[in-house]
Design brief:
two-stranded antiparallel sheet; 7 strands; Topoisomerase II, domain 5; 205 residues; globular; alpha+beta
C-alpha cells in the first residue's frame, strides 16, 4: 500500500518542493491506477505516513488535520492536503533509471515498481506492523543515524558478514527509537527481543 501511494504521488509530480494536493485526489489516483479496493484503507495508510507520532521519519508532508496521538482520526480526505517529503524522494531515488523491476498493474494498462529503490532503510527506520492469516509482524522504528552506522559497519566487513553477531550490531543500534519517545525499564528483556527479531540466538548480558 505505501509503495503504491508513494509511487502515485511521485508520478503525479507532488514533490517536497511543489504545492500540496488534495488527499482525495491522491487517493483517487491510487485507487484508479494501482489499488482498486476501499478508499478508507488507502487514506489511512497515507495519513499514517504524515503522522509524526506514528513515523520516525515522515514520508508524507500533510497539511490539515491528520489525527492525533490520542486516537483522533484524520479529517475527511476532501479537507486535507499532502505532498512527498524529501525522505520519500530518497526512497524513490533513481526510480526512472531501471534500478528496480516494474510489473503490470491490476488491469494490465499501466506498470508499477515491484519494489522501491529505497536509498534509506525504511523498514528498519519506520518499522512495520501487519496481520495476515496465521501470522503477524511488528517491527519497531529505529534511529536513522544508528542504522546507517550499523550498515556501514557491515559493509566494511562484507566478506565476513556471517561472523557479525547481534551484540556487535547493538554497539550501534541499542534499541528502538519511537517517535513519541520512551524509557526502557527492563534492559535484559529488550536485548532478548532484539536478538529474536534478528533471528539470532545470543546470550543476554
Amino acid at each position: 500500500m505505501q509503495r503504491r501511494i508513494l509511487y502515485a504521488m511521485y508520478d503525479m509530480g507532488i514533490r517536497a518542493d511543489t504545492a500540496f494536493k488534495k488527499s482525495a485526489r491522491i487517493v483517487g489516483e491510487v485507487l484508479g491506477k494501482y489499488h482498486p479496493h476501499g478508499d478508507s484503507a488507502v487514506y489511512e495508510a497515507m495519513a499514517r505516513m504524515a503522522q509524526d507520532f506514528s513515523m520516525r521519519t515522515l514520508l508524507v508532508d500533510g497539511q490539515g488535520n491528520f489525527g492525533s496521538v490520542d486516537g483522533d482520526p484524520p479529517a475527511a480526505m476532501r479537507y486535507t492536503e499532502a505532498r512527498l517529503t524529501s525522505a520519500a524522494l530518497d526512497i524513490l531515488f533513481d526510480l526512472n533509471k531501471d534500478t528496480v523491476n516494474f510489473i503490470p498493474n491490476f488491469d494490465d494498462t499501466l506498470e508499477e515498481p515491484h519494489v522501491l529503490p529505497a536509498a534509506i532503510p525504511n523498514l528498519l527506520v519506520n518499522g512495520a506492523t501487519g496481520i495476515a492469516v496465521g501470522m503477524a509482524t511488528s517491527i519497531p522504528p529505529h534511529n536513522l543515524s544508528e542504522i546507517v552506522d550499523a550498515i556501514i559497519y557491515m559493509i566494511e566487513r562484507w566478506e565476513k558478514l556471517d561472523d557479525i553477531d547481534v551484540e556487535q550490531l547493538m554497539e550501534f543500534v541499542q534499541g528502538p527509537d519511537f517517535p513519541t519517545g520512551g524509557i526502557i525499564i527492563q534492559e535484559k528483556g529488550e536485548e532478548e527481543s532484539i536478538c529474536v527479531w534478528l533471528g539470532a540466538r545470543t546470550k543476554s548480558r
